[in-house]
Amino acid sequence: MSAPEQDRAPSAPEPTAQPGGKRVVVAAPRGYCAGVDRAVVTVERALEQYGAPVYVRKQIVHNRHVVENLEAKGAVFVDELDAVPEQAMVVFSAHGVSPAVHAEAAERNLRTIDATCPLVTKVHNEAKRFARQDKEILLIGHAGHEEVEGTSGEAPDHITLVQSPEEVDALEVKDPTKLAWLSQTTLSVDETMETVHRLRERFPLLMDPPSDDICYATSNRQAAIKQIAARSDLVIVVGSANSSNSVRLVEVALEAGAKTAYRVDNAGEIDERWLDGVEQVGVTSGASVPDDLVEGVLAYLEQHGYPKAVEERLTEENLVFSLPKELRHSARQEAVAVGDLQPGS
């Protein structure tokens, strides 16, 4: 996994107000992160290489439009492995799975491709390392989220879930001198740091992870919406209801000063009444959202009297993850074939 290459972009100029004062600002970065892109391409390549059906445990990423598009290509999404026929091909989602799921797949002779985001795998490895050191791990995250279930499964006897700063005071630990914390990768940066601060006040010897667990894309999207929220009468976040990072973007926008903020799956979910009296609109999207859904929202706003959107970019994102090993051979073949077609090659 290569390190993120992120260069601070110069501050965008203040967009010129249109007649009537209306303005639309779209935040960047937004949309697909490296882990989501890798996961979606994994399913598409698996379908090309192995043929339909390819089964996927849980939603490959938390966006219903992405899931529906992959279903149309032959992917079959299931909640658990018992719905997958023996010896079939199954892809594990970007959110990661526990060792128990890998074991079940092996017992049922399933062929597997693991599309877990490498940044989630990093958290799994940290959990295993802390467990080997006999540390009690305080995992900051949301109960029931696939990522939390996968991480907890790596060290079930060592992990205690902490869902909010308010839960810290009631925590009971075995040994306050042998504590470490980890977090779900898609949380609010500010709330997570508040939880860590509260934990450290109670447990001064709390050990940090080697590096931040909240993924670069989650952090960047939250920082980007903060940059425009205070100037927005309305912020529209494109993303599905089960997307933790999309839901957090709504909360971050409101905390940063947006007068109102709503999450929509697509332009069809916008309530025209939200635009009453609104001049300044900010738009962004979660890390599992294809950009055409954002374009649909911007087109909707233009149809309702708003000018063409101006983009304000906080930073550049150049991180790319390689595909799972089962698919790299076909990807290399494709790269060679494309190279053979280049002039002068």
From TrEMBL:
Q: Could you say which residues bind (2E)-4-hydroxy-3-methylbut-2-enyl diphosphate here?
A: H62, H95, H145, T185, S243, S244, N245, S288
Q: Which Pfam families match?
A: LYTB
**Pathway(s) it belongs to:** Isoprenoid biosynthesis; isopentenyl diphosphate biosynthesis via DXP pathway; isopentenyl diphosphate from 1-deoxy-D-xylulose 5-phosphate: step 6/6; Isoprenoid biosynthesis; dimethylallyl diphosphate biosynthesis; dimethylallyl diphosphate from (2E)-4-hydroxy-3-methylbutenyl diphosphate: step 1/1
Show the catalytic activity. dimethylallyl diphosphate + 2 oxidized [2Fe-2S]-[ferredoxin] + H2O = (2E)-4-hydroxy-3-methylbut-2-enyl diphosphate + 2 reduced [2Fe-2S]-[ferredoxin] + 2 H(+); isopentenyl diphosphate + 2 oxidized [2Fe-2S]-[ferredoxin] + H2O = (2E)-4-hydroxy-3-methylbut-2-enyl diphosphate + 2 reduced [2Fe-2S]-[ferredoxin] + 2 H(+)
Q: Does the keyword Iron apply?
A: yes
Gene3D superfamilies, alphabetized:
3.40.50.11270, 4-hydroxy-3-methylbut-2-enyl diphosphate reductase, catalytic domain
The record's section on InterPro entries has: LytB/IspH
Which co-factor is required?
[4Fe-4S] cluster
Region feature Disordered, mapped onto this chain: 1-22
Sequence positions that bind isopentenyl diphosphate: H62, H95, H145, S243, S244, N245, S288
Asked whether the keyword Cell inner membrane is assigned, the reply is: no
Q: Which residues bind dimethylallyl diphosphate?
A: H62, H95, H145, S243, S244, N245, S288
Provide the residue positions that the database annotates as binding [4Fe-4S] cluster: C33, C117, C215
Q: What is its EC number?
A: 1.17.7.4
A biological process from GO: isopentenyl diphosphate biosynthetic process, methylerythritol 4-phosphate pathway
List the GO molecular function terms. 4 iron, 4 sulfur cluster binding; 4-hydroxy-3-methylbut-2-enyl diphosphate reductase activity; metal ion binding
For this protein, the record's NCBIfam families field holds: ispH_lytB, PRK01045.1-2, PRK01045.1-3, PRK01045.1-4
Q: What is this protein called?
A: 4-hydroxy-3-methylbut-2-enyl diphosphate reductase
Which species? Desertihabitans brevis
